[in-house]
């Protein structure tokens, strides 16, 4: 990889919300050159003027030296582009930084859902694309202020399954930042298991308005979550992915038991009247299930319910008229 300053990697983060800022802050703290790209002007301004306030189990500190700007203002060509945008915004976001990408740039998606690799393939060569998943938690507590408590992991690999030196190098850089990252040839199993987790808990919480722990208020809550997990993993197996149902079901049970007040991002989007990522999670599962001839009635029902919720939000926004 090129464009190094000493031993530092030149890294851009596309989508510097909670997760993007967490990763960017930890990478900068570990000595990498980091540029945060986002359209939240208030967030960017605070980071430029005061640094990023990062609160983790390691302490409360400000990370300075970060470059923070809008995507169209990006300059140079990074060694690594980390993509954290919402899936429904990825195409437009990548188009806005087309001049920022070069042949040596590796592009890593750690986004939720399915279909991310295919989107990246439309903008860079397949051999430049890395795909992965992460379980790190992060919350944005205001402009320039991100918090993350507890542990997470990161799994990455080449999207086309070919082992390349760049994959191990990226994993080493993320791991050195404390992100507990490994290059994992079985990354697609981890991605599908996270999709099953999100299809169950995110969509259930978004439809009901429940925090994760409130799903246990009646037996049908956890039962429905388990059923959705089984449906999603059946589709994964049909695509030849060696998923582990026991591990995924245990993760769902642990989340319901331990994350009692947590509001998943999809519920937060619903409460704020924003479009959700249901299309890249339940929507992708349903589409692939139909192609494989597999019935996923609960996953499909939740998709339909979320589409209705989104339609109601659009109607409410239209009825309220433009802000003046």
Automatic annotation (TrEMBL):
GO terms for molecular function: 2-dehydropantoate 2-reductase activity; NADP binding. It catalyses: (R)-pantoate + NADP(+) = 2-dehydropantoate + NADPH + H(+). Keywords: NADP, Oxidoreductase, Pantothenate biosynthesis. Coiled coil: none annotated. GO terms for biological process: pantothenate biosynthetic process. Pathway: Cofactor biosynthesis; (R)-pantothenate biosynthesis; (R)-pantoate from 3-methyl-2-oxobutanoate: step 2/2. Residues 11-155 form the Ketopantoate reductase N-terminal domain. Catalyzes the NADPH-dependent reduction of ketopantoate into pantoic acid. Belongs to the ketopantoate reductase family. This is 2-dehydropantoate 2-reductase. It comes from Zestomonas carbonaria. The gene is panE_1.
């Amino acid at each position: 990889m090129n464009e190094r300053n000493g031993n530092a990697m030149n890294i851009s983060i596309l989508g510097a919300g909670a997760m993007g800022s967490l990763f960017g802050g930890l990478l900068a703290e570990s000595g990498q050159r980091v540029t945060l790209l986002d359209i939240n002007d208030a967030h960017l301004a605070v980071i430029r003027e005061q640094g990023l306030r990062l609160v983790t189990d390691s302490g409360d500190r400000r990370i300075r030296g970060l470059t923070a700007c809008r995507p169209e203002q990006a300059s140079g060509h990074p060694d690594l582009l980390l993509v954290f945008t919402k899936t429904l915004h990825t195409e437009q976001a990548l188009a806005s930084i087309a001049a920022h990408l070069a042949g040596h740039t590796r592009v890593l998606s750690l986004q939720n859902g399915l279909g991310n690799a295919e989107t990246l393939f439309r903008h860079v060569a397949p051999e430049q694309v890395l795909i992965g998943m992460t379980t790190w938690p992060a919350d944005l507590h205001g402009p320039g202020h991100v918090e993350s408590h507890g542990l997470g992991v990161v799994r990455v690999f080449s999207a086309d399954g070919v082992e390349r030196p760049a994959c191990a190098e990226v994993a080493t850089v993320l791991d050195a930042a404390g992100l507990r990252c490994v290059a994992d040839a079985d990354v697609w199993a981890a991605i599908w298991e996270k999709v099953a987790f999100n299809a169950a808990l995110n969509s259930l919480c978004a439809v009901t308005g429940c925090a994760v722990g409130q799903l246990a208020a009646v037996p049908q809550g956890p039962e429905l979550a388990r059923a959705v997990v089984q449906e999603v993993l059946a589709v994964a197996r049909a695509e030849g992915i060696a998923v582990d149902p026991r591990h995924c079901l245990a993760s769902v049970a642990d989340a319901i038991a331990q994350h009692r007040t947590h509001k998943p991002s999809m519920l937060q989007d619903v409460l704020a009247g924003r479009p959700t990522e249901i299309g890249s999670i339940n929507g992708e599962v349903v589409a692939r299930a139909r192609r494989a001839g597999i019935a996923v009635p609960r996953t499909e029902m939740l998709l339909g319910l979320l589409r209705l919720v989104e339609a109601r939000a659009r109607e409410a926004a239209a009825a309220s008229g433009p802000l003046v």
